[in-house]
């Protein structure tokens, strides 16, 4: 997930490690906190695989004003995605199987880079995520029904809160899916109209 997010950000522009960490925090949100201890090993793996290159600017180049004092020399290194890195990112962004939606963290990263994702892949990921969350909802409902009489009111409220959160996610996913279907409809209609016109000219 981290390497996917790094490649996605470097796809947009080269970055210092410090700026990359800030952008990762924005992309991943509350999913996880990115430390330099996890970021730099990931960058090292990507560099070793030929997916990113590094450039060390001259001594006169300064770090951002708000960079922490312990960022050090490595903070001056600029990371750039390679052609191989772009190909790898396209492979990752095109994945639409369970690895893209069963885990909430992976789904969140895929969603962050949906603008680079084909419409049919976006739809498959959203529908897969909705199925996953609906299964979670059924499990929570079943658990709530079994334990309602055996737990204290605080535990019961916690279970209800979890169920409400899952309900909200299902509704949110349904709205995203409806939007995807609505936005893709004109293209599908134009394709059908164009096909019909071609058939008419053929005959």
Automatic annotation (TrEMBL):
UniProt-listed Pfam families: PadR
Region (Disordered): 183-203
Keywords annotated in UniProt: DNA-binding
MF terms (GO), sorted A to Z: DNA binding
Annotated ranges, domain Transcription regulator PadR N-terminal: 6-91
Protein's recorded name: DNA-binding transcriptional regulator, PadR family
